[in-house]
Design brief:
Elements: E1 4-9, E2 12-17, H1 18-48, H2 52-64, H3 67-92
Antiparallel strand pairs: 1-2
């Protein structure tokens, strides 16, 4: 089995080691989660109307700077990525 794999970036594929690919997948999942939380908080600030969307950004910054939140996001992304690869390996057998 090869220790290198390809990571798709747009229309390009970049060859890299498997641990690097999985690390990039975890990081991208964590960033996507943080972006979704930002979107939800901004929409909530807009709908409530007390502070507007900028108040949502302030709340998000206070929320995302907490180490327990960052840890939970990264742990969730790591477990999900590991589970998907484990499941894929089980299907190939």
């Amino acid at each position: 089995m090869s220790d290198r794999t390809q990571f798709a970036v747009g229309r390009h594929k970049v060859a890299m080691p498997r641990p690097m690919k999985r690390s990039l997948q975890v990081a991208s999942a964590a960033l996507l989660t943080a972006a979704v939380v930002l979107f939800v908080m901004m929409i909530n600030g807009f709908l409530v109307g007390r502070g507007g969307t900028l108040a949502g950004v302030d709340v998000w910054l206070a929320f995302i700077k907490r180490s327990d939140i960052i840890g939970t996001i990264i742990l969730t992304a790591l477990v999900t990525t590991a589970f998907l690869y484990w499941q894929r390996d089980k299907e190939r057998r």
